[in-house]
Amino acid sequence: MAGEDETRSPAEDLARRLIGEFGTRAPRAPKPDQRPERTRWSGPGPDARDPKTFSEVFEQLRKKDTWSQKLAEGKIFSEWGSIMGEQNAAKSTPQQLVDGVLHVQTESTAWATQLRLMQKQILEKIAGEVGKGVVFSLKITGPKAPSWRKGERHVRGRGPRDTYG
User: pLDDT for 35-85, tens place per residue?
Assistant: First the structure.
């Protein structure tokens, strides 16, 4: 054995030392169907790593369940005029949307009655604008009357009276 060490060339010694440090396995060649493990830069074509526009990112967020419900609610309130028509929207205001029930307040009790008669058509129009499953029913109320429990118009022991003529 001692004789073998003396007959080796310096290149063989270097090769043996490198094999000893890095192991005896040769590096694996990539399979034909696999890309080599090196950084690839984006070419002239589209790539998943390319920057996205704001509208693309917003569309991805909108598709998530938590965003779509809130966006539909916001669309009802912001586009109330186009959903209801200008004349009906001028006399009514959406107040809140709770568990699929849209609360709408009108300018007078006559308008509340009119919108209650149109309730089915209103629900269909809302479903067409924002999608089904957002609004299930409407709660339409007239104007809030002032309380006469205190003040000059209150009569003790008697209920409220018609003060609106």
Answer: 555 566 666 777 777 888 888 888 887 777 667 777 888 889 998 999 888
Domain that includes residue 118, residue range: 62-141
The single residue listed with the structure tokens 């996205």 is 52
Is 48 domain-assigned?
Answer: no
The structure tokens listed for 6 are 């003396």
Provide the domain count of the chain: 1
Does 28 reside within a domain?
no
Count CB-CB contacts under 10 A for residue 51. 6
Q: Which residue has the tokens 């924002």?
A: 130
User: Residue 129: inside a domain, yes or no?
Assistant: yes
Instruction: Count the Cβ atoms, other than its own, within 10 Å of residue 1.
Output: 4
- Look up the pTM and report it: 0.53
Cβ within 8 Å of residue 91, ≥6 positions away: 106, 107, 108, 111
Do 112 and 140 meet the contact criterion of CB atoms below 8 Å apart? Answer: yes
Do residues 134 and 69 make contact, with C-beta atoms less than 8 angstroms apart? yes
Structure tokens at 35: 């890309």
In a domain, 120, yes or no: yes
